[in-house]
# Entry
Amino acid sequence: MSLTAPNEVVTRALLRQVNVPGLDRPAALITLDNGFDHTKPNTFGPGGLASLDEAISAALAAEPAFIAVTGKPYIFCVGADITSLPLLADREQALAIGQLGHRVFARLKDSQIPTFAFVNGAAMGGGLELALHCHYRTLSAGAAALALPEVSLGLIPGWGGTQLLPNLIGIPAATQVIIQNPLMQNKMLKPKQAAELGIADVLLEPADFLERSLEWAAGVVRGEVTVTRPEVDKDMWAGVLYFARQTLDQRLHGAVPSAYKALDLLETAKDADFATGTAAEDEALADLIFSEELRSGLYAFDLVQRRAKRPAGAPDKGLARPVTKVGIVGAGLMASQLALLFARRLQVPVVMTDLDQARVDKGVGYVHTQIEKQVSKGRMDKGTAAKLYGLVSGSVDKSAFADCDFVIEAVFEDLNVKKQVWAELEKIVKPEAVLATNTSSLSITAMAAELEHPERVVGFHFFNPVAVLPLLEIVRGERTDDATLATAFAVGKQLKKSSVLVADAPAFVVNRLLTRFLGAIFAAVDAGTPLEVANRAVDPLGLPMRPLALLQLVGPAVAYHVGGTLHAAFPDRFGISENLKRIADSGQPIVVDDEINAEVAKLLVVGDQPLTEEQVRQNALDALAQEIRLMLDEGVVAQAQDIDLCMILGAGWPFHLGGVTPYLDRTGTSERVTGQRFLPRGVASLAG
# Structure
């Protein structure tokens, strides 16, 4: 049986002998390098594992003072070559790839010669597991991130991570790293956090990281440096995992098999010997590699890592104009968040305006408070903070926008109000300034219709919270020109957002789909379905939050307003729910401590035709399938992949669904509702 991956970019393990002062024998230094720069990180396929195996054999044969593994500049290793997983022919091959990684890595764990991982850069998945097999670990403070992200993809850490990590840093922290973080938009660890958890033995500065690591390792070998690790408390093991399982049940309702497999493996790690634990990893990995959830996870990963960086339909970036000053119309919460984001990312002056000085002062004050919080938490140095204080200012006089290159409005969601803002500002700003709107549902074309230069108006729709959600819907109006659009994409990239080009259609992508989705839920409520039943109907999807929690986050008034916009455009598909209006008018929270507010429930006027959970769920899925097909036919986005990217990055829909269209395909919903799949067979699904 061959494990050869035909398209594998082989990461070579390059061995050299290094003389270290104070040692009577050279050290063996193995450097992982796939021959590319940091933009193509080191990964392990069969060829890479074979190269590492050979390097370890050669190192052991030389009987060095110690063996150390490090990576090429900025990158240690980001794990297995996941692109080759769909090429595995059967479960036997899947089992073998797990066993191969375990066998090679275990040579470092079982070595009689001290082994070190010099984690000089990003270390994820199998890369971090490789480091965990070494006896000691140094970590660069400049490393981009550390993580075991496999659960987010539909896998488990399959090369020793579930067995080694909990016995190194304890079960609470290991559960966080292996399960909780991947399910929180794949949260990464910063080097300081990793060191505090005990993943690394010492944190060193990046400037002379390799030299200091060699020096530190020599101190360990000579007995001058003693590494002490706290004893792992095993009494709390069962309790932590019981709580973790309850949390998964409440949040995912069994929808993510990889998370539950990881829990089982963490339970095994408490008492099982290492060979038994890693054999269980092999079996779990082989099961998951041939799952629909993994195919969806790999598809979603590819969207986020590749498509998001090369937006479909974006104009030539050479057309983009420079932006040296930004204006923000409004000083409310959204505007203040935008001000901080623009100042931090673009490092240019940002000025906010509003109707009176009190509002302006409040907006600027919010920015200053957020900066102070970053400093107090050690996430920002005082020099950077002082610079940002100086960049953000406020004024009640819109003439402050006269020299701005980019002006964005975040005012009340009313077309007439926004048209009035742009009519006033067009007389003030310079002719080539881009006018961007953060509208969530209104027409860009209509907003710009009466302007002298409508070609410079563009939709620039952020998602709340601005600092967290990475999606930016860039909306092209009928007369938006390429230079304006190119500038918008360039600014989006500087803001470190993932931009998707969207046509000027009502509510664009995310809000249109979520409104249709919630509309199906509330239609069931209006018909007589109890709130509790409608709310838990979509639990089997494993969404980040239930419908009523989502509604509370969005705000019932906002949801009702967007629904009204869509009802005006598509009255046959977007109804008006009087019950939603009653909730919005009440001003009361819908959910209190995860329970539905009884006072809100009393406000509802419902029919006498309640639906079952299954009926509510299928109606919601049918509505999504129909709306997506219509959006694609209308050309709202280029392809179904852009729909999925928007739902993942803007609504937090999980990787195991592939966003939304792979799930609709594999459940047969898309073909039943629309007569066709959204994606070809074998894309985000098992071939067949």
Summary: The two ends are 23 Å apart (CA to CA). The longest strand covers residues 12-18. DSSP finds 29 helices and 19 strands in the chain. Residues 613-634 form the longest helix (22 residues).
